[in-house]
């Protein structure tokens, strides 16, 4: 059928020994960037996304369009509309389409911790049942041609400790993960156990990556840095949680981590989880100060005590395991990464804020302030 042909075309690598990767969540923030990077280096990519309305669907459609128009693939990267819970669809993609996927980069999930207070079942459906369905479909591929799986867990599995700072130590993979502070974290923790079971029973190659607060261009509007940028521009109040500190990790570093994990999984089964962070925790208040500088406008700050809504007070990654096994090294400081975000943000929303424009120099006459 035409469908199978389109899938095969997009899945075909254009370099010798290239990979063929099914990227779930490809219209999402991290999935979009990974799909772009894979196509740019000549790997075959097919995306899958259900385009749900958790946040602005037009942003997801724009990412899909950019992938389709990317000149890296001959005919661009195909992002199919479909759900990871659709067993027939996944079986057809992985076993019936004739596309020989070497890898699955599984990034589709219900993200965000606060939304679980409103729609808890969406987390179970996508992050638990959806993961099981995906791994079942991979296990159903004949042994010799089974794709390796790399999937997104989360730093949220580390949860909170009593003083919220992990005793000043970065989190490493051996640390406790038995006290999730949100349903989101609980489903990611469950996902890690499920992944382990599938590698144990079916011999699947499954590598988990615990991302630490990813930010950058084409980011998620529900995340704090993005919402703060919008609020600052609009002159709306910005609510800060006292003491909140995050290991903000720039998207390009996360993409490098994902590609390194895919490459490593090609050579040998790793079957474990790795921290993918920046290793430099920054108070959220300082993140806001950088945004103020880049946007050329002061935030109307309101500092409140941390509520029990699923957020954690502190994250900080120890990435020595990922450095050892994957050669992962974060390279982007927060100021440089936020500048890239703000440049994109102003362009995408056609915001003309004169002076700021990501810190570029403008003639004084054009400045609003
Ligand atoms: P995102 O919401 O932008 O991307 C996820 C995509 O998956 C969305 O486009 C969504 O439409 C799609 N999706 C959701 N449920 C689906 C389903 N059932 N079937 C098909 N598609 C579905 O989020 P993101 O920030 O790109 O996150 C990617 C992955 O990384 C997620 O697994 C997330 O939990 C994890 N993660 C992200 C961060 C971060 O800071 N962004 C941190 C830790 C972990």
From TrEMBL:
UniProt entry tagged with the keyword Cell division: no
Region described as Disordered: spans on this chain: 356-369
Any one biological process term the GO annotation gives: galacturonate biosynthetic process
Segments forming domain NAD-dependent epimerase/dehydratase: 21-277
Coiled coil (UniProt feature): none
Keywords: Isomerase, Membrane, NAD, Transmembrane, Transmembrane helix
Membrane-spanning parts: 18-40
Record GO terms (molecular function): racemase and epimerase activity
Family from the record: Belongs to the NAD(P)-dependent epimerase/dehydratase family.
Name of this chain's protein: NAD-dependent epimerase/dehydratase domain-containing protein
Organism: Brachypodium distachyon
Lineage start: Eukaryota, Viridiplantae, Streptophyta, Embryophyta, Tracheophyta
Residues of the full protein shown: 102 to 470 of 477
